[in-house]
UniProtKB/TrEMBL annotation, chain A:
Pfam families (alphabetical): BPD_transp_1
Transmembrane intervals: 12-30, 65-87, 99-123, 129-153, 174-198, 233-256
Name this protein carries in UniProt: ABC transporter permease
SUPFAM superfamilies, sorted: MetI-like
PROSITE patterns: ABC_TM1 (PS50928)
Listed GO biological process terms: transmembrane transport
InterPro entries (alphabetical): Bact_Polyamine_Transport (IPR051789), MetI-like (IPR000515), MetI-like_sf (IPR035906)
Membrane topology recorded in Swiss-Prot or TrEMBL: Multi-pass membrane protein
Compartments, as annotated in UniProt: Cell membrane
Species annotation: Aquicoccus porphyridii
Automatic annotation (TrEMBL), chain B:
Gene3D superfamilies, sorted: MetI-like
Alphabetized UniProt keyword annotations: Cell membrane, Membrane, Transmembrane, Transmembrane helix, Transport
Listed InterPro entries: MetI-like, MetI-like_sf
Listed name of the protein: ABC transporter permease
């Protein structure tokens, strides 16, 4: 076996390691059996029915969804502004500013969670939805800045300068030139922030008020007993959403950008 | 042009202000505050008294329970990081060097795990390693064993879960630095008489070390701060330092101790990050987003 064939074989094995467990969840979601594991008794959709009739799970879904949208709104707004400053302007100490902006990632999430929880409690702001929103936004912020920054580098200033020299006001220029050019970056940042919030469990366990569950904490709670078949069905739905939406968005973006040319 | 020539431009400052305020209020101040809070005294469940005493720190420094947790966390983090590097280097090399037409597909598959829920990816290992899992089913079907092999709820399953979740960070970082290497260097080394292995070892490998280091830092720090994976995939004795924080804050409601442990973890993992940034700088970390 040549070295390259070995590398290829090794790569296939590692990819199998990464995807086989996920595939197993997707398959077991359709298992008719009472139990969450193997063997497969037969195919059925009963666990999806059970899922949609489970009020607690549906409530967790709504909470996660609203929280994700609001996190995306907050983190993307703040993040776009910061990324614009980094890409568009030259100023002293830029490296330090960048480090500061990504610093929330460098703090272990468990520590960030406990720190914020204790600090806000000291300010008499106990666990609440607001704490979750603030916390998720700060966790998502560095990623939004990095993602948006990477997209912004490609936008050339000449377009804006051309609009200005053709007589557009700064406000007109922003809304008719800059903003449309920014849209893909905004969208990418928002999607990233939403996913980070929707998926977060490490910090959410500390921050959620009692009685409020997001999808991951709901699954975590259900796991205390065993892996129920409902969890597999829930996993299937979540994977469809969190993988399907970005893929669809990316595919659509590519399709439309091709059509324009 | 005249605008950019003015000495002090306030616009970047204005644009950065919201982010600065948010990070200061939600990260910098709380991180400083947990140090202050670590001197508070816990009286009862969720009741503590403002104080300046070293009880929490004394407990941390004198109790072997905490020391062994620190060592265990360090050991598991090192093992997970090394295994992730061993598992991740060749696939990254393959993706960077392949002439396969659908390379984008391999890259997409590399990013895909980031979109799949962390908790689903973690619990999926129960389906693989558990008593009713795929592997035990396979073993029984092959007649290799009558009784299910116990592979779950031990240190092994915790490590497998951690590697599985953090491996994409490693591969992505190595890939980014391999991709940045000039393609003519390895052939150049070959023409100068190097064997393929020599060319790799003396040209490509050293040039890919920044990516390997960035990936290792991420995996190490992420593992060192984990507590959910051991809760799901580990047994009662498979706890990381993060689990002690979870127990103190969520179970025992001893917040000053939780603050003390959190600050300790911050210093331990923070010093690794600082050490790394002294040698490598933090730029490499953001390259993976390009």
């Amino acid at each position: 076996m040549s070295a390259w064939a070995f590398i290829r074989f090794y790569t296939i094995l590692v990819y199998t390691f990464m995807f086989a467990p996920i595939a197993v969840v997707l398959v077991l979601a359709f298992n008719n059996s009472q139990f969450g594991g193997f063997p497969i008794d037969g195919l059925s959709l009963r666990w999806f029915h059970a899922l949609f009739e489970n009020e607690a799970i549906m409530r967790a879904f709504r909470t996660s969804f609203i929280l994700g949208l609001m996190t995306a709104l907050v983190a993307t707004t703040i993040g776009i502004l910061a990324a614009l400053a980094l890409v568009r302007y030259q100023f002293r100490g830029k490296d330090w500013v960048t480090t500061f902006l990504i610093s929330p990632v460098l703090v272990p999430e468990t520590v960030l969670a406990v720190g914020l929880l204790i600090f806000l409690r000291w300010l008499h702001m106990p666990r609440s939805f607001t704490l979750l929103l603030l916390g998720h936004s700060i966790i998502a912020l560095p990623f939004v800045v990095l993602v948006v920054q990477a997209r912004l580098v490609g936008i050339r200033r000449e377009y804006e300068e051309a609009a200005r020299s053709l007589g557009a006001s700064p406000v007109q220029t922003f809304f008719s030139v800059t903003f449309p050019l920014l849209l893909p970056a905004i969208f990418a940042g928002a999607l990233f922030a939403f996913t980070i919030s929707f998926d977060n469990i490490t910090a959410t366990i500390f921050w959620r008020p009692s009685g409020m569950e997001t999808v991951p904490t709901q699954i975590f709670g259900m796991l205390r007993h065993s892996v129920s078949p409902e969890i597999n069905a829930l996993g299937f739905v979540m994977i469809c959403i969190t993988v399907g939406v970005p893929l669809l968005a990316g595919g659509l973006a590519r399709y439309f950008s091709r059509r324009k040319i | 042009m005249a605008e950019t020539a003015t000495p002090i431009d306030k616009r970047p400052l204005v644009l950065l202000t919201p982010a600065f305020i948010a990070i200061t209020a939600l990260v910098v101040i709380p991180m400083s505050f947990i140090l202050v809070y670590s001197f508070y005294e816990n009286i009862d469940l969720a009741v503590d008294r403002v104080a300046f005493q070293f009880g929490n720190w004394e407990m941390l420094l004198s109790d072997n329970y905490y020391h062994s947790a620190i060592w265990k966390t360090l050991r598991i983090s090192v093992v997970v990081t090394v295994l992730a590097a061993v598992l991740g280097y060749l696939p990254a090399y393959f993706i960077a060097m392949t002439t396969f037409r659908h390379k984008w597909l391999l890259l997409l598959l590399l990013i895909l795990p980031f979109w799949v829920s962390f908790i689903i990816r973690t619990l999926s290992w129960i389906h693989i390693l558990g008593n009713q899992g795929a592997l035990n089913g396979l073993f029984q079907w092959l007649g290799l064993s009558d009784e299910p092999l116990r592979m779950m709820f031990n240190e092994f399953s915790v490590m497998v879960g951690l590697i599985h979740v953090f491996l994409p960070y490693m591969i992505l970082n190595i890939y980014v630095s391999l991709e940045g290497i000039d393609r003519n260097l390895e052939p150049a080394a070959r023409t100068l008489g190097a064997t393929p292995w020599q060319a790799f070892r003396e040209v490509t490998l050293p040039l890919s070390l920044p990516g390997l280091a960035a990936g290792s830092l991420l995996v190490f720090v992420l593992t060192g701060g984990s507590y959910v994976t051991p809760l799901i995939l580990g047994g009662p004795s498979d706890f990381l330092f993060g689990n002690l924080i979870y127990d103190a804050v969520v179970t025992e409601l001893n917040w000053p101790m939780g603050a003390t442990l959190s600050f300790t973890l911050l210093v331990l993992l923070g010093s690794v990050v600082i050490l790394y940034s002294r040698f490598m700088g933090l730029n490499q970390l953001s390259k993976a987003f390009g």
